[in-house]
């Protein structure tokens, strides 16, 4: 069958965008789920994106849950900004609108799930792949790691398909298959279920990804190598998976009119320096877009290589990343460290998350850092991760005292002392954390502003005031 672009029809049940005031449309879409973490979701999803793009389709991507690294590979495969769909941080009501925004102007939206199909870091199934797929009405393709099974694959797939009423599997992709004979056994076992097997990927050392403690090595650290890996994935997926059948499933999802995420209001104009380069690549595109909507001009800089912050900047955003991998280069760039220390001390409006927090500390594993945060960072061998509800203790650039923020943490480091700018509540209990002044917030908390532009508006407004004062 052909898999070229086609027009969809908006579901009458959702109402007309013109009549209802809605502006987004969920078009052809599919969710790639897995039986467990490491089943091969990223391999299959990224390979599908790249392979479908080769056919001439405009392919969009999204990732369920909080993640920076996988979406970087998605962007490489699709040529479009990566997106995240997080029902816990952004709220369930925002997921469909964010998905429609991710797929705007594309022929197909490929959504990669998180962990196992029914797993989620939030309460119950709220943040799971299954819940997001149900919310956006997308068919689910289940990736099964079949390396160590044959007939038992049917029991596993049957369980995933029937566990929850209203959530079912539309197709199966077999991963890490041992041989042609093994594939035949697996397909025969699944045949009585009546679920289509869309393809199979055989074990191949060439598909082994470069791992690090938070997952894959970010694209920004070696773009040529990442591009070669994605091209290889496209080859393998095109050879082993029925692309036409995947597209047919995606097109079977009814086109549905939904709202659009609320944009940030334009509140001023400010030049904001945004940390980039290999050490700091964990910043959600939605956050940067919200800052731009609020009136920011974003100027990237590399903390490890540049001699100082961009001239005229009255705001600074430093996201997460792997500063520990580049700690020696960061610590050796004394002109940058001195400049940042002086400018933050003079009132530079600053927002630092996770790796950004470590950079602003006095030291990281003995390497000198900026020193505006009165703490020292140390790498550990145990992860800290999970969703957090944060209450702002004192006025800071992202919220007044008492403001509630939702975000996530994922890091292998600690800072001592931990700070007390935020009152954090998670599954493990309650604890103070982070450092703030009226013009700075530095903490481990990652925010996603796709559904809440208020922190971006406050940040730009404050940075704009600093610009006026500077003049």
Short description:
This protein is an alpha/beta fold and 471 residues long. It has helices at residues 17-20, 41-54, 69-78, 92-103, 129-136, 152-162, 180-190, 223-240, 243-252, 285-293, 327-332, 334-345, 355-360, 454-470, and strands spanning 24-26, 29-34, 59-64, 84-85, 108-112, 140-145, 171-177, 197-202, 211-212, 215-216, 256-258, 270-275, 296-301, 315-318, 349-353, 363-364, 367-368, 376-392, 404-416, 422-426, 429-433, 435-437, 440-443, 446-447.
Would you write up a description of this structure?
By secondary structure, the chain is of the alpha/beta class. It is built from 14 helices and 24 strands. It folds into two domains: about 25-260, P-loop containing nucleotide triphosphate hydrolases (Rossmann fold, 3-Layer(aba) Sandwich); about 270-470, Rossmann fold. Helix content is about 30%, strand content about 25%. The strands form five sheets. Strands 4-3-5-2-6-7-8 form a seven-stranded parallel beta sheet, sandwiched between helices. Strand 7, helix 7 and strand 8 (about 195-200) form a beta-alpha-beta unit. The radius of gyration is 23 Å and the shape is globular. The model is unreliable at about 5-20 (pLDDT under 50).
Number of strands: 24
What profile does the largest beta sheet have? 7 strands, parallel
- Radius of gyration (CA) equals 23 Å
Averaged pLDDT: 91
Taken as a percent bin, the fraction of beta residues is: 25-35%
Task: Determine the fraction of residues in helical runs and give it as a percent range.
Answer: 25-40%
CATH topology of the largest domain: Rossmann fold
The total of helices stands at 14
Taking the alpha carbons of the first and last residues, their distance comes to 63 Å
Estimate nothing, just give the exact number of structural domains.
2
Stretches where pLDDT is under 50 for at least 5 consecutive residues are: 4-22
| Level-1 CATH class name of the largest domain | Alpha Beta
Assembly context of the chains: single chain
């Amino acid at each position: 069958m052909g898999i070229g672009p086609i027009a969809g029809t908006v579901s009458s049940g959702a109402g007309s965008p013109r009549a209802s005031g809605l502006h987004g449309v969920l078009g052809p879409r599919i969710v790639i789920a897995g039986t467990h973490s490491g089943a091969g979701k990223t391999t299959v999803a990224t390979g599908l994106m790249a392979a479908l793009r080769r056919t001439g389709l405009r392919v969009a991507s999204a990732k369920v849950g909080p993640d920076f690294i996988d979406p970087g590979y998605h962007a490489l495969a699709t040529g479009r900004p990566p997106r995240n769909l997080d029902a816990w941080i952004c709220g369930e009501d925002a997921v469909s609108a964010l998905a429609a925004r991710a797929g705007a102007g594309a022929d197909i939206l490929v959504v990669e799930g998180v962990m196992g199909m029914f797993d989620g870091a939030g309460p119950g199934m709220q943040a799971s792949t299954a819940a997001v797929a149900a919310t956006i009405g997308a068919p689910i393709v289940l990736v099964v790691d079949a390396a160590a099974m044959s007939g038992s694959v049917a029991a596993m797939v049957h369980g995933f398909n029937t566990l929850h009423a209203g959530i079912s599997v539309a197709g199966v992709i077999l991963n890490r298959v041992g041989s042609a004979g093994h594939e035949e056994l697996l397909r025969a076992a699944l045949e009585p279920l009546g679920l289509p097997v869309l393809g199979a990927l055989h074990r191949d050392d060439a598909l082994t990804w470069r791992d690090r403690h938070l997952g894959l090595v970010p694209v920004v650290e070696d773009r040529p190598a990442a591009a070669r890996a994605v091209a290889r994935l496209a080859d393998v997926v095109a050879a082993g998976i029925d692309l036409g059948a995947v597209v047919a499933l995606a097109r079977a999802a009814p086109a549905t009119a939904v709202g659009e995420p609320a944009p940030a209001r334009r509140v001023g104009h400010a030049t904001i320096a945004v940390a980039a380069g290999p050490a700091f690549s964990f910043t959600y595109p939605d956050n940067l877009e919200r800052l731009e909507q609020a009136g920011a001009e974003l100027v990237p800089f590399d903390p490890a290589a540049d001699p100082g912050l961009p001239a005229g900047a009255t705001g600074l955003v430093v996201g997460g990343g792997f500063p520990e991998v580049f700690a020696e280069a960061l610590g050796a760039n004394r002109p940058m460290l001195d400049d940042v220390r002086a400018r933050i001390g003079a009132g530079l409006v600053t927002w630092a998350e996770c790796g950004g927090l470590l950079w602003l500390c006095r030291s990281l594993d003995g390497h000198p850092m900026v020193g505006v945060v009165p703490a020292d960072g140390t790498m550990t061998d145990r992860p800290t991760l999970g969703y957090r509800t944060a209450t702002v203790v004192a006025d800071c650039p992202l919220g007044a005292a008492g403001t509630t923020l939702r975000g996530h943490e994922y890091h292998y480091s600690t800072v001592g002392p931990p700070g007390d700018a935020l009152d954090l509540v998670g599954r493990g209990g309650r604890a103070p954390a982070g450092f703030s002044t009226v013009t700075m917030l530095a903490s481990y908390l990652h925010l996603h502003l796709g559904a809440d532009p208020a922190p971006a508006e406050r940040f730009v407004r404050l940075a704009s005031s600093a610009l006026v004062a500077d003049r």
